[in-house]
Amino acid sequence: MVKRKRVQDARQRQQQQEQNLLPQKRHYRQRAHANPFSDHALEYPASPSAMDWSSHYPAFVSTGKTPEFADVGCGFGGLLIALAPMFPDTLMLGMEIRVQVSQYVQDRIIALRTTSAISNAASPEPYQNVSIVRANAMKFMPNYFPKHSLSSLFFLFPDPHFKARKHKARIISPTLLAEYAYVLRPGGIVYTITDVHDLHEWMKSHLAAFPLFEPVAEEDLRAQGKGPIIDAVYSSTEEGKKVERNNGQKWLACFMRIEPRRILGRLNTHLHQE
Ligand SMILES: C[S@@+](CC[C@H](N)C(=O)[O-])C[C@H]1O[C@@H](n2cnc3c(N)ncnc32)[C@H](O)[C@@H]1O
To answer: Scanning 71, 252, 260, 261, which has its CA 20 to 30 A from the CA of 122?
Structure first.
């Protein structure tokens, strides 16, 4: 029964692509959660230099560019699709652990590249700057991104893992923050948003306690021209839209990756005040 449904879904997906229609989520059903600690038989590069981005961003091969924005746990890809036309020269990557969901995003991007290229002759290569990998970001982030290569890292409506014994599965943790600080360049921004207040406090407190991150206010980011990114963070994702439909509240917390010498500067000031 399940197998027949899968075959049917695969056939429908193929038909959609043939007709260049946008994929429909109902053909990509999957369990709500995937265990980040289990072995998902994932393929991943041994190191960033082993990663071949040419099939992801064929229009950018000659530029030698690598992704600068990473959407961790991108779900159905709403943020990437919203940001792609705003930053047409910036490569963006979604990382998603669930098979069907990442397949949906991949099909969505292919369909958008094709249909938009036909309908928008003025800009012949839309959505070429956006792609997805099926990956466990909690295990393999530094396999994909070289040191300091990212300017933005997004954690939008991450799985809350409510029970205390499950907190270790949360995507923000002291160990993982070291990896995020490694791949983010100084001045780069971590955007987090959630509708779960306890998770918001958790993410904020862990980021604030980590020496290489400093909180940055929403107004300051807007003043720096990052308003469109913040708007997309609030409202472009499927989960964000669901929260809106349910009249839920959203909590945003953004942090800047700082230079280690700024930590020394802060320490010096502190010592002089003693
Ligand atoms: C609640 S959804 C939010 C999706 C999306 N960011 C949004 O706002 O609509 C969390 C997503 O993170 C994915 N995820 C959870 N752990 C992950 C991991 N370790 N690596 C990659 N994706 C993960 C889940 O499969 C799920 O699609």
So the answer is: 71
